[in-house]
Amino acid sequence: MADKLKTHHLIIGAGIAGIAAAEAIREADAINKITLINGEPYPPYCRPLIIEALTGEKSFDDIKLRDDEWYKANKVTLFNGDRAIELNTDKRILTLESGRKIEFKKLLITTGSIPATPPIPGLNKVPAFNLYRRDDVESLKPLCKPGTRALIVGIGLIGLQAITALKKLGVDVTAVEMLGKVLPLILDKEAAKYAQKRLEANGVDVHIGTAVTQLQSTRGKPHPYAALTNSGKEIGFDFLILSTGMKPDKSLLDGSGIDSGRGIKVSSTMQTNIPGIYAAGDVVEYPDWIEGENAIHAHWVNAYRQGRIAGLNMTGISAEPYEPVYLNSLTVFGLPIITMGASRIDDPKGAEVYVSEIPGREAYTRFIVRDGKLIAVTFINDVDRAGVLQYLIREKIDIGDITHSLFDQGKEGLEFLYKLHSDVVKGDVEWAASMDLIDKYRKDMKRTRWGGK
Fold first, then answer.
1. Among the listed ranges 160-169, 218-227, 391-400, which one has the minimum average pLDDT value?
2. CATH node for 327-445
3. Whole-structure pTM value
4. Which is nearest to 362 in space by CA: 209, 205, 196, 203?
């Protein structure tokens, strides 16, 4: 008969949301047992850094989320390689693939996301990979030889990581994106042009507005496989990487009674519709105050914050409600890009858009303000002092009467904010005091030619 264990706090999923929750629980609860379920057979690792394991810059030991001693010191029981397969919320029992059953008091689901695989005819006849887990990296490594050609389907964040890594390894790269711009979920169309130009300058063959309609073997040279596209073009390749998006892993929810849409629905405490059962990370959908609808906020920082909030609430401590903001920081072959909020929207309705552009040095800045509040920021190249803008978005600071003086009139307003941000980062100014300074700036600007409309 399979083991039956009991735990107070059970966490399914050992990504950053699950680890953050375990840390938060142990801060508030030094006694009750924590059990962490990791479906992969390896110790939990930092998923965004697996690309460095592919290039050989880091090993998987280097990117462990926590070392072995951390689990012992925090009295966290970790099960590696035993996947959760059935959840009974009435009896509060989880069944693992091994047959082991775990009875729990409080549960947190942090199962993350899984690749969304498009129904491309012939996909099962070519060497196709995702780039999401350690096993993907281990399978892909032997194929990444100089002179081979990779086809990347989808130029999102994972696609960009794959492109960068493969070029470092000497692999030729062709990349196709079905939508009309690269990085379509984070960049507006003008910003995307800068990213595409940098990709092409580094030898990437980019096809925008292109969908793969068929995959097939050529049995010829120079490449053994080919992709047919909706434009009629044939693209030869040696192997293929899918970067066609992710979707929440809701495989445990059938029959559980847990409410979900695209992802698991949670309250501001990260609790589901069932008391004592929580969810956090990429598996969660949450009301987006900027776009006015439920959204999946799949990002490392958001997952960490959600996990921590869930963990504290599981112990009975009331944590601050979670207010999500899309946030991305990336580099396209040396070109730094930071985006926040609704940056991907090309033509925002009912909002003011402020753009500063210096094409000669690939510098592009874009702000979107709605109802006096900053809702989106894009920085290309000039990214070193972006933190203050993130604060304005997260805290919903009303800048309505000074918007034009901050963004529309050149550097005076921005220099004020940047100086303020530098002081805050150095610890010279607290954020509470900084808000007083913004109020003072607001009053001063009304008496000058930079005063807002």
1. 391-400
2. 3.30.390.30
3. 0.87
4. 196
